[in-house]
Design brief:
Cytidine Deaminase, domain 2, about 150 residues, 5-stranded mixed β-sheet, single chain, alpha+beta, 5 strands
């Protein structure tokens, strides 16, 4: 795999990252559309019933229309009719595990503030946290419609 800086590395799944989430995030990473930044991201989350939803980042010539991998995964979750998840893995080829942007943190918080988060890079480094730790003062409005 090519990584920034021209190194060739074979990614390693860390033992603490579930194989099914790793595989889905890694596969989504390879599906990312990042022609402008070159920074591919794959995310996979597990719903309470065990179903896995993956997402890739999708850039756009109009930068504000780009979608992050975490957002894509949550959109797939919601489109399926589910409203919460238990665990999310975010995979990048960055030197350090990459954290979700502020918008993604709020989107993750909207659906599962207590979910486990594992940020993983190509070398198998893992940063473990929760959605609430990523966004300690996140907020949720009370739904007005059923």
């Amino acid at each position: 795999m090519d990584v920034p800086g021209g190194n060739q590395l074979e990614p390693r799944r860390p033992e603490q990252v579930p194989e099914d989430l790793w595989d889905a995030a890694y596969q989504a990473f390879h599906s990312a559309y990042a022609p402008f930044s070159g920074f591919q991201v794959g995310a996979a989350l597990r719903a309470a019933d065990g179903t896995i939803f993956a997402g890739s980042n999708v850039e756009n010539s109009s930068y504000g229309l780009a979608r992050c991998a975490e957002q894509s995964a949550v959109q797939a979750l919601v489109t399926s009719g589910r409203r919460e998840f238990e665990h999310v893995v975010v995979y990048t080829a960055a030197e350090e595990p990459a954290s979700p942007c502020g918008a993604c943190r709020q989107i993750l918080f909207e659906f599962s503030p207590g979910a486990k988060v594992q940020l993983v890079n190509h070398a198998g480094r893992v940063l473990e946290t929760t959605v609430t730790e990523l966004l300690p003062l996140g907020f949720r409005l009370e739904p007005r419609l059923g």
